[in-house]
Amino acid sequence: MENGAVYGPTTEENPGPARGARSGLAAYFSLGRLRLHRRLFKVLQLLLSLLAFVCEEVVSQCTLCGGLYFFEFVSCSAFLLSLLILIVYCTPVYDRVDAVKVKSSDFYITLGTGCVFLLASIIFVSTHDRTPAETAATVFGFLASFMFLFDFASMVWEKQQESQMRKPEATRRTEATEPLNA
């Protein structure tokens, strides 16, 4: 028997570049793992922290630079962390790691980033020279920190909803009148 006769019916000659609804880079990117409101929070966190960082970078001089430097570090870190979390949720990386650990990490990263970003925005507001770039940076900083905190609140709410769904209904205990091993 020839090799062509054995392998012919099960293989394709040339499958072509696009074989389905999604091909190329789009095949590796999926937003379906996050609910719509969580996706919106994640994208807003990413954009607002980037805008806060860019506006802060435009500042050319400062009188009290400690607040500016702290805000710079926090806004850049917030942008990178939110980008990392979004990449993990939207790529096949999510399938390769433990989903519980991803959600737990997202929970704590979102809480920590929101609190530190809020603190950095407050410090920057109290130390800035009131230039338009600094004002814009603080506005975006506050908005970004609120997005992180709103996202955290939505995660807490979702956890409460899941725990209420898992709770068994109150069952009545019946006492055994005879011992089980008698």
Automatic annotation (TrEMBL):
Residues 33-160 form the MARVEL domain. Residues 163-182 are annotated as: Disordered. It is a multi-pass membrane protein. Its main location: membrane. Keywords: Membrane, Transmembrane, Transmembrane helix. InterPro entries: Marvel (IPR008253), MARVEL-CKLF_proteins (IPR050578). The chain crosses the membrane at residues 77-95, 107-125, 137-157. This is CKLF like MARVEL transmembrane domain containing 6. The gene is CMTM6.
